[in-house]
Write a structure and sequence with these properties.
The complex is a heterotrimer of chains A (about 475), B (about 100) and C (about 240). Chain A is mainly α and about 475 residues long. Chain A has a domain of about 210 residues. Chain A contains 19 helices and 2 strands. Chain A is globular, with a radius of gyration of 21 Å. The two termini of chain A are about 35 Å apart. The N terminus and C terminus of chain A are likely disordered. By secondary structure, chain B is mainly alpha-helical. Chain B has one domain: Helix Hairpins (Orthogonal Bundle), CATH 1.10.287.3510. The model of chain B has no long low-confidence stretch (mean pLDDT about 90). Chain C has about 240 residues and is mainly α. Chain C has a domain of about 150 residues. Chain C contains 8 helices and no strands. In chain C, helix 4 runs antiparallel to helix 7 and helix 5 runs antiparallel to helix 6. The relative contact order of chain C is 0.14. Classes of the chains: A mainly alpha (about 475), B mainly alpha (about 100), C mainly alpha (about 240). Chains A and C meet through helix 1, strand 1, helix 4, helix 5 and helix 6 of A and helix 1, helix 2, helix 4 and helix 7 of C.
């Protein structure tokens, strides 16, 4: 019997982060009555595996794992570097928070489908962040999209079903554009492995077409203005924990792929394209912020805020410096934590009062103090005030903008911050006022309030643990430097 | 022009036709069918260009298409079921206009 | 839904719609031309990965190159794809119960043909599964034929007995992904990597995985045909 006792460094932690949620999905499907404990146990196990992978990366640097022992170009490789580790950590933290939150949120009938769907979503995310093969990324994108759509539709009702249908059609369109790009790349260079393609790729009409297709498909999925039309209805009408998952994690997954492809496969992309992405990002920031101010329902407002915050991510493209990319990553991480907290808070308010109309918040500050604190703390990060992750993110982006001489992006950052501040204060202000419409109040489970608060604190803490996070980001040098292809 | 490239061009044509139909038609069933036509176009491009070898065609491309077909079928099934529920909930198998609020 | 029989007058709205459609044709034609040019600029001869596959085919456990790629070299994709299928079924089930259809009892032709064809289809599915090692065939092809048998039965009015529509049905659905994942993990415990089949067992392992996958794929596709959760309680 071969030696089964492996040291911590030898256990394939990365692979376990994919296997465990798949196993969790299957087991919660087979035993619906045990879905909740199975889901929670899987969540905890995944967090442990991500920690193990982090340990492995810190000790040994970026890891490449050849599934099946074949190795690219014949087989599929998994690749973990600092960037993928951070995405996995973000998913693990948000995922654990959502898992605990959802214990109290769903009734038994919904929970029996929520848990397997959520586990599939988590498996798709982990598989996506670890994949180094563009066709494998297509399969994970589809897994992710279908799971997300099914979770949105779980809310039932005309709004959620319509939002889910629109989301599904957009998701499929995006995937097909991406797949056509993969086809062109494979037939040009004979491989679908990112590292091999990075060596072979050259500027040619086929590659430009592939680049255009893949970027368009991924932009559809990341909801960059003007391809964001599907996001507000889908994110707002979903159940609150699902909205959090969508805004915090799912839209970031396609951005992650876009980032990888941009850095590794398309380094010759013209500066004009980068400027275009930056412009669209700026438009997203301003448009999303303005639309958020016009909303009367809390979840719709938070959804438009997601559109705005996603715009910040694209400001890093024209800046094209390590500081800029680090700033974008920081936006990604702190937005994930803050948006999760906000949607959880909105979910609590909805649970409490049966509605989420902003003007009728009815002294939520007295009934749900933890929730409104969570919302306010998350708002601090979204606005970009110190000490929070959002502040660090904006600081880095501003620094990159000034250093590269493109100071006009800084104006966008400031305007975006002002718009966010406007709606954060508006919501918090209404939480102090008395509503004129009487309603039945329901007690909110403690787990739901505490997880909202804890996620908001994570957003704040991200601003304090900067050196460690920056050190993690540099493992594998994904943002340039020698040997970035692994 | 070799047959492989001809089929690949047909695939591109299907993709574009499907995209047109997806944007233009309001009825959900037509949109779903348009997505299927687009998918068929992409698979055709994949398979056609795989025949550019001497001897047996490229098996990896064929395997990718099999994977793609299963994924497309699964997605279509979900889309159709969702369409039925949308029709049951709103009375029409069309996406309602985005409320401006 | 009834359609009105008199022709609709062309309204202002219609002509505006036609204008938008014509306007759309321009950028889409440009897209088609661009993509066509991209395709045409590809070399007319390119082996892709066929040489790599041919070189390692003996150690893969099967002799059909497509099966080798699907179940061995790129088996991880197939594993995720089985997950996609199960997920789609889960999504459809989460939407609600299967819509009730008021079906008339099946006619004589359907009744007779289904009795003849279903056993034949199951046999063909088994053959395709077995033949997949050396010829075109394999889990997906066999699973589709099995699903056809299932759909034919469903069209003829048959429904799964309520004793089987709970855990046994779920087990059948999960079997493909479950066996695949189990084999993959056991191989790690035995000291290899994920899905690294030892060459002497590869053929047997692939057959095992494909058999379970055939069952799952057939069941899932037939269940998807119903469009929702199966009802509790026998129908016939």
């Amino acid at each position: 019997m071969p030696d089964v006792l492996l040291s911590i460094a030898d256990i394939p932690w990365g692979v376990m982060t994919i296997v465990l949620p798949l196993a969790g999905a299957m087991s919660s499907f087979l035993w619906p009555r045990r879905a909740l404990p199975l889901g929670l146990a899987t969540a905890l196990a995944i967090v442990i595996c991500v920690a193990g992978l982090g340990w492995q990366l810190v000790q040994q640097g970026a890891q490449r794992y050849a599934v099946g022992g074949w190795g690219a170009p014949l087989g599929i490789d998994l690749y973990a570097d600092g960037l993928s580790l951070l995405m996995l950590m973000m998913t693990a933290v948000v995922g654990l928070g959502i898992s605990i939150y959802s214990c109290g949120y769903f009734n038994l009938e919904r929970a029996r489908y929520f848990w397997p769907l959520w586990m599939f979503l988590w498996a798709a995310l982990n598989a996506l962040f670890l994949s180094a093969d563009i066709f494998n990324l297509y399969v994970t994108l589809e897994l992710l999209g279908l799971a997300a759509v099914a979770l949105v539709a779980l809310a039932g009702g005309a709004d959620a079903l319509t939002g889910a249908m629109r989301y599904l059609l957009v998701s499929l369109l995006g995937s097909l554009c991406y797949l056509l790009g993969v086809t062109l790349l494979y037939h040009s260079f004979g491989s679908v492995d990112i590292a091999i393609l990075a060596e072979r790729v050259e500027s040619s009409p086929t590659v430009w077409a592939a680049m255009g297709l893949m970027i368009t498909g991924l932009l559809l999925k990341t909801a960059l203005f003007p391809l964001h039309f599907w996001l507000p209805s889908a994110h707002a009408s979903a159940p609150a924990p699902v909205s959090a998952l969508l805004s915090a994690l799912v839209v970031k997954a396609s951005f992650y792929i876009l980032l990888r492809l941009w850095l590794e496969l398309f380094p010759f992309a013209s500066a004009a394209l980068a400027q275009l992405l930056g412009l669209l990002g700026a438009a997203a920031v301003l448009w999303g912020g303005l639309q958020a101010l016009r909303q009367t329902q809390l979840k719709m407002l938070i959804a438009y805020s997601t559109v705005a915050q996603l715009g910040y991510l694209f400001l890093a493209f024209p800046l094209a410096s390590i500081t800029g990319w680090t700033g974008a990553l920081y936006v990604l991480l702190s937005h994930a934590a803050a948006k999760t907290a906000m949607f959880m808070a909105a979910g609590n308010i909805l649970y409490f009062g049966g509605h989420d109309r902003i003007v009728d918040l009815d002294r939520v500050v007295q009934h749900l103090p933890l929730t409104i604190t969570a919302f306010a703390l998350a708002g601090i990060s979204i606005m970009g005030l110190p000490p929070s992750g959002g502040f660090i993110a904006k600081w880095l982006l501003l620094e990159a903008a000034i250093l590269s001489g493109q100071w006009w992006w800084g104006i966008v950052l400031i305007l975006g911050g002002l718009l966010s501040a406007a709606w954060v204060f508006k919501v918090v202000g209404y939480a102090f006022t008395r509503s004129e419409v009487p309603h039945e109040a329901r007690a909110v489970p403690a787990a739901m309030e505490w997880t909202a608060l804890l996620m908001a604190m994570v957003a704040i803490l991200l601003g304090l643990f900067v050196p460690w996070l920056l050190a993690l980001m540099e493992i594998g040098l994904p943002f340039g430097g020698v040997g970035s292809a692994g | 022009m070799s047959p492989a490239l001809l089929y690949a061009l047909v695939g591109v044509g299907l993709f574009t036709l499907g995209l047109y139909a997806l944007i233009v038609h309001a009825h959900l069933l037509r949109k779903i069918l348009a997505i299927n036509v687009m998918a068929s176009g992409v698979f055709l491009v994949l398979v056609a260009l795989a025949a550019r070898t001497q001897g047996t065609p490229d098996p990896v491309a064929h395997a990718m298409v099999i994977t793609g077909i299963v994924v497309a079928v699964s997605a279509t099934a979900l889309a159709l079921a969702l369409m039925l529920r949308v029709r049951a909930a709103t009375g029409r198998a069309e996406l309602a206009e985005e409320p401006l609020e | 839904m009834k359609k009105s029989n008199k022709p609709k007058p062309i309204t202002e709205n219609d002509s505006r719609q036609t204008q938008w459609r014509l306007l759309l044709v321009v950028p889409l034609s440009a897209l088609a031309v661009g993509l066509g040019y991209a395709v045409l600029s590809l070399p007319s001869q390119a082996p892709g990965l066929s040489k790599h596959v041919a070189a390692k085919l003996e150690t893969s456990g099967v002799s059909n190159p497509v099966t080798a790629v699907l179940l061995n070299f790129r088996g991880y994709d197939t594993l995720l794809e089985l997950g996609v299928l199960l997920l789609a079924l889960l999504g459809v089930w989460s939407l609600g119960a299967a819509p009730k259809r008021h079906e008339p009892p099946p006619g004589l032709v359907l009744e007779l043909l289904s009795r003849l064809l279903v056993p034949l289809l199951i046999l063909v599915a088994g053959y395709l599964l077995w033949a997949g090692a050396g010829a075109p065939g394999g889990a997906f092809q066999a699973g589709s034929v099995l699903a056809t048998a299932g759909v034919l039965l469903l069209l003829a009015g048959w429904r799964l007995d309520s004793r089987f529509s709970g855990l046994p049905l779920r087990l059948a659905l999960v079997a493909g992904l479950g066996v695949f994942l189990l084999v993959a993990v056991v191989l790690i415990l035995l000291g290899g990597r994920l899905l690294e089949y030892p060459p002497s067992f590869a053929g047997a392992l692939i057959l095992l995985i494909e058999a379970a996958a055939t069952l799952s794929i057939g069941t899932a596709l037939a269940a998807l045909f119903l469009g929702g959760r199966p009802e509790k309680g026998a129908h016939r």
